[in-house]
Amino acid sequence: MDEDEEQVIADTLEAFxxxxxxxxxxxxxxxxxxxxxxxxDQMQLxxxxxxxxxxEEAVKINCKLANDIEKIGxxxxxxxxxxxxxxxxxxxYMDKVLxxxxxxxxxxxxxxxxxxxxxxxxxxxxxxxxxxxIPINDRKKINILVPGAGLGxxxxxxxxxxxxxxxxxxxxxxxxxxxxxxxxxESSNKYFLFPFIHTFSNHxxxxxxxxxxTIPDINPRSxxxxxxxxxxxxxxxxxxxxxxxxxxxxxxxxxxxxxxTAPNIISYIKTIWHSLKPGGFWINLGPLLWHYEKDxxxxxxxxxxxxxxxxxxxxxxLIQLIKNSGFEIDKRETxxxxxxxxxxxxxxxxxxxxxxxxxxKDI
Amino acid sequence: MDEDEEQVIADTLEAFxxxxxxxxxxxxxxxxxxxxxxxxDQMQLxxxxxxxxxxEEAVKINCKLANDIEKIGxxxxxxxxxxxxxxxxxxxYMDKVLxxxxxxxxxxxxxxxxxxxxxxxxxxxxxxxxxxxIPINDRKKINILVPGAGLGxxxxxxxxxxxxxxxxxxxxxxxxxxxxxxxxxESSNKYFLFPFIHTFSNHxxxxxxxxxxTIPDINPRSxxxxxxxxxxxxxxxxxxxxxxxxxxxxxxxxxxxxxxTAPNIISYIKTIWHSLKPGGFWINLGPLLWHYEKDxxxxxxxxxxxxxxxxxxxxxxLIQLIKNSGFEIDKRETxxxxxxxxxxxxxxxxxxxxxxxxxxKDI
Lengths: 363, 363
Known about the structure:
homodimer, 9 strands
């Protein structure tokens, strides 16, 4: 691990550590605003302070998870390193903690299943269909890659079907959290989590805002895979999988809400082609919310390591590019999905995701 | 007009003026990225540069509107003032130009009618229902206020039904644009407009990105109102309408995607109560996307004049507050709406808007 990477990890851990403090600040600003109102106005909102107190309690409960992730992350990733001095909070990093908490709801709560069924199930069903003739005990020889694995539920669910799966991830928010999840969680339903307390907008009821779930719905450590058929690789997708050792390695590459993270989609496609076996399948589901579109236009980016490159294609151009790149598209479908979306919010983000199965031509 | 206000106007006009330049920059960054690709990769995307050229042409066409607004705005609002020196572009202001262009599509294009039918029609229908016994020629005595009038289509459509309507607006992006629209537009379908070229994400086809409409679908100046029953007031809602002269002035106040612009919703409600006649109606439609939620937590705000206050209520608490404030709620309904949303985008923002009719109690 080089020094830059250590800095990113230390910054990531700092953000987890300061989650409680930053949320407390947000709540206290509201409390002070409320107390600065005229007494007659305060009387109109008699339950408002009590509501803030409840959010404060919820933050404390979320803190248990954030603090445990930070503790385990520090001992695993920065063991023996001296990063105890107070660091400043990196811009944009607290938002990533808040997203990570929502991702726990999506990937590892019982209620997140509705979202997972829209996004992960079509992919898993397609994989099972492709290999339906192979009994579950013989599936270890089938190698499947899940780039952008996030908190690991999609690769985990694929591994449960008997396949050998490797998740790949770049973000230390995801990597540290999933390391914690896969190695230190003692039981299912270990933590309470309030995933939707971080915005105060578009809630119908106070109860909706204070919606609580437990995680994980299943303890990944309690599931004994037949041998070791589940692994995670750390690093940027094209760097890891364009290596010679990865040539024609995978039977399936499954990308879910991933391809639009590409600064250069051409190298993503080339890497997929390179690491798939001839005749292997690329299964995709997701929108085209090109992650670097905004940054590529701003000289002063809010984050480090932003590539100075962004190529944003429309779906039709992308599909043509995929065909030009040595793939045959077997199947296409549009599937309405959500992504860490509060089901009770008055504002819904509906991603009309594109699902496809592309076969690497056997040249 | 004080000097601060003049500065805001000059900054607003500067943003309209520089629209073409900033978009050109965004396109040129893509062109340079593309040309820096390996020749073999460029060959995979033979139509990409042509696509960028078409976006560039579309920007030039959008520029005609932006430039005309700037020209008229300067002569009307800064006449004789010396603001010709080069100004820096205010942070966040270009985004407001892009939103204004989309608002023209929403409010003044034929295709925007689908959105207007969801948001404006329920309000207009309710007003007509309340005053169905009054013939159109006698409706001038009915005073209706539309706070947050934007580009003025809702107040305009209400005025077409014979009522006396005042729109109120605070943003000079909206004020200058609607001044231009209501006073200088010569004919309907005068301008072509490409409302969806400002993001390159989530487009299915190049054609979708380059969707073109004409504006306005109706020339407001061609409609002769029976007398002068349509006006616009400039200023912050509570400042203008909590004045004594406004007491019990309006028969109806119609708020559409407006109430969540409040830093302090209590003073919005008090102002509505103050300026409504006893027995008058407050008709509302919109979500609760509290505009100042984010700013209230950030010490360094990206914009000027951000209040240090934000009170974000859930819908149930807000409804209780309205009842406590001297209103009787007659009717409630949830209506799914969009707001300047590209109908062809792979990402849809669905606002589950709350519609209500609240009657000021006759005390």
